[in-house]
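Blinded run. Sample ID left blank on purpose so nobody reads anything into the name before looking at the predicted structure. Input follows.
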Amino acid sequence: MILYSLIAVITILMACQYRTTEDLDRVVYPAGKYSPRGNVGYTTRGKALNTLMMVSIFVVLTLLAALRLEVGNDYGTYVVTCHEIFQKGYVVTEPGYNFVVRVLYTLSGKEDYLLMFGVFAAAIVAVFLKVLKEQADSFSWAFFMFMTMGLYYKSFNTVRYYFALAVVTFAIRYLVDINRENLFKFFALIFFAALFHKSVLIVIPMYFIARIPWKRWALIVLAAFGLVAALLHEQIMAIALKLYPSYKNTIYIEESHTLLENAAPIMGCIFMIVICIICYKEAIGNRNDNRMYFNMNIMAVALYLSCFWIPLVTRFAYYLTTVQILLIPNVICSIKNPRKKKWVSIAVIAFCILYFLYFLRQADQEGFKVLPYKSWLFYETRFLDQTDLAR
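Blinded prediction complete.
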């Protein structure tokens, strides 16, 4: 817990040193005046600092994820699955992931699952950093939420899913201004992500629904969706299991599930929605991206409330809620009133810190298992008990 908190603080402080392009273009001279085109010397130093901070953040986050051992709810399962992939056994994982594993194992000359986790750690961090840098109005705010909402630490689980999630979040940029070229790029990225986790295909209808400018009657449609979901319980579960075949015949399907299991993400969505409503006129109504993100949060609440009985509902909901790390920074940067901006910022900081503390309390429980943290640097053996038993 202390390690994760320390990493979060250090990297967030680094992110706060990152300056936007607008900041670099409006350089203040010693006399107190600025040039819209900036000063070459100051701008160069600013860009160098940006590069240093970005690389430093990438290295810290990648190393923490790559050096882990038996950290993650399904770490051992992935080791066994990779063994089966390399031995050409039967697996339910997607062809893109299978191909990467075979290439890595062939290049390393052994079943080096540590290399696999390291490569995916670097890929997940790299894509998310690119998303935060290019798709949020404030990198520092977006990165703060990326860490405190637990998204980075959650990526220690189900690495192929979080890689697909990162790619999908990147692809959203092509729905802001819809044209033929952007649609092609969007679908290309979605189908690429589906090579690693087929569940991403569900975002195609969800994202286009969120992209449509909603009227008030849209809430009635969402309510009807909830009713239909309750009536078609078995059919929806069958579809979910086709997207997540690894859950078939497991205890997760047999157990009963309640709304309380997803209380934290539901409260998170509600908080984001309230912030957006308060700032709707200046931050949401006139921007396609923010309006789409806002609609996604409403859809996520509807999904959580109507499909709480699905054990893997969070996996589908994350495709809708991950954009919170883009939405709230955009909202804060759109607020013109300094007093209002201050209080909204304080509310967001307080909520995110409380959410992070709650996440850390749950991090060692079933379903997360990202605590306690262990590294293979301090262990002589590189084999897990789960792997030995599977053989």
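Unblinding after everyone has recorded impressions. The longest strand covers residues 27-28.
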